[in-house]
From TrEMBL:
PANTHER family: CONSERVED MEMBRANE PROTEIN, MEMBRANE PROTEIN. It comes from the Bacteria. This is Uncharacterized membrane protein YkvI. InterPro entries: YkvI-like (IPR038728). The chain crosses the membrane at residues 40-62, 82-103, 115-134, 141-161, 188-210, 222-242, 262-286, 298-317, 323-344. Keywords: Membrane, Transmembrane, Transmembrane helix. It comes from Streptococcus henryi.
Amino acid sequence: MFKKIMSVALAYVGIIVGAGLSSGQDLMQYFISFGKWGLIGVIVLGILNAIFGRIIVTLGSYYRSNDHSEVLSKISHPITNWILDISLVISCFVIGFVMIAGAGSNLNQQFGLPIWIGALICALLVISVSFLDFEKITNIIGIFTPIVIVMIVIIAGHTLLGQNFDLNQLHHSAVAMESPMPNIWMSVINYFALCVMTGVSMAFVLGGSIIRIGVAEKGGTIGGSIVGFIIALASFVLFTRVDQLSGVDIPMLVLANEVHPWFAFLYAIVVFGLIFNTAFSLYYALAKRLAGESEPRFKLYLIISVTIGFALSFLGFRELVGLMYPALGYIGLVMLLVLSSAWIREKNNVQEEKQLRRRMIKLISKKHKKDQIFTIADKKEYQNLSEESNVQTETIKIDIHDFVQQELSSI
């Protein structure tokens, strides 16, 4: 159980932690530019990430969603649903090509490769990995997350230990930077709404792959908390070196080079992996939404959208972050309101469904264990529970049956 929870948590972090956050560019523009107040802002942001990480992944599990529309159609008014659906489709596409641009900037800054080569490598990886089994995809999404956490901790230790900082001087240097937001509180809300718009489509799909609601709750909470930790630590490190970092595309990579050139080499690869994670998550969710259940159309839409995204990535990473992210963040405010109201409204139903599925798993497990008897009464109770579930009766029965078989085969 713990292994599955952590797999979900790391996959969620992989979805959220993309080019801007792991590179430091988002944090420089949204938080460091407000000086000391920016550091308070990232703490608030971390708390919001933990709360909404739980909400989003849990709702995905509760509704067993294959794409974001399956959740939004149930938790919002038809007009609001239509607006958010269109907004998420646009967000997946736009942030996707910002990620591809970030991949080009990352390899260009560290290795001197032409920007288009890094962007092309990322685009080709997104297309090829999208055709794998979803279980394998989940593992791929989470693979770079623990590595980047360790590396950011190492960068923080190397940058901070034994150093003295003039916080007032750093504050004045930081506020001299240009920010896309008018104040820190609007910056916190806008950036968090942007994070939700970036990750909610794939996070719903991630949650939909989890039959145990308890696993979704814990995985989403831990994943959101890890995101908060990464943001807070990286922000403080960037703040202490704001004088040297204000004009570069990948600020964290500059700090990684100060640790050791080989460490920077590895960090550039990991950042590229995280950029790929987010780009893949966005384009995968976009193609799923457009194609529905049709696998041939899914492949076609994914190839077309990634190809167009690659072409648009030539607009430049830092410029795209400053231009596109604030606009998408404002749209995301509507999403936050919808998710909050849905959670308040459905919280009790989610807990009832959680207990219902737990009981169904326990009952059907008896059927597959030689030392237990699956009685007529058990069969009747199992049928009644499946009819009470918020998921279609036959669908939940098949899902529970498949889940129990997988669990028993792994013992």
